[in-house]
Amino acid sequence: MYIAECSALAAALCWSFGGLLSTTPARALGAVRFNRIRLSIVSFVLISIVLVTGSWQTLGLHSALILILSAMIGVFLGDTLLYATLKRLGPRRTGILFTTNAPMTVIVGYFFLGESLPLATAVGCFLIMVGVMMAVFCGRRSLSTHTFEQVQGSLSSGIVLGFLAAFCQAVAVLIARPIMASGVDAVAASALRVGTAALALNLLFLMQPTRGNQPVTPMTRRLMVQTGLSGMLGMALGMTLLLFALAHGPAGLVSTLSATSPVLILPILWIATKERPAPGAWIGAFLAVTGMACIFMA
How far is CA 28 from CA 40, 95, 134, 288, in A? Predict the structure, then answer.
């Protein structure tokens, strides 16, 4: 039974569906508001699980402080930038841009932590960057009118936000990596990170001055359901499946399979939009995933 492989692919599938579910509420509510509500829902569920299981006891003060720093960079700032990108560029471009967190992690680790940079890793970084550029600039059919493929606002600003989101994720991973390797329970660590980001976003919301007569999109039941489902599917279930896969298979294989969401999202988009993705989208996605495989298997 290929338990690890199936779990890793299921995690990637969850992230693909989570991205689609997030597009409409992120555009309607705005990146910060959407992320605040989403993280609040997920943190409540994860913290409840940790309190019931008692896994919070694996967190020491030093580990907790490092994970809080990682959360502020990767979840509070990184996720907000990610959903700002999603609002502008849609799920396909956002997903492919976010794959650049892998080469960014390698590059930051090489220059600041003295980690090695094998030839396969360098080739992987190059393939990811080429794939991202192809998917972003050559991945849309000229006649496509579906909201998932529309660019709202400036394409260049969306690309910058996507790269910044990936960079925040790369830095957060490097910060948290030694703590996770020390034996901290993964669910407890996730609960702390998500809870910290949710608390920070809610405090930021409370400290904001009133916006006067500026219109605010009302939170409908449909938007709340989409927001909650995107969080539970993309973050809670997807991350749980990834951790389960890591417990039953080699990290390189699991990481590569779980990074296939840019490819998996293409047939899902095909079904959702009734429009076949452009050749540039397929080629770019496969190049990015091949690059991820080179990095993780190096």
Answer: 18, 19, 28, 30
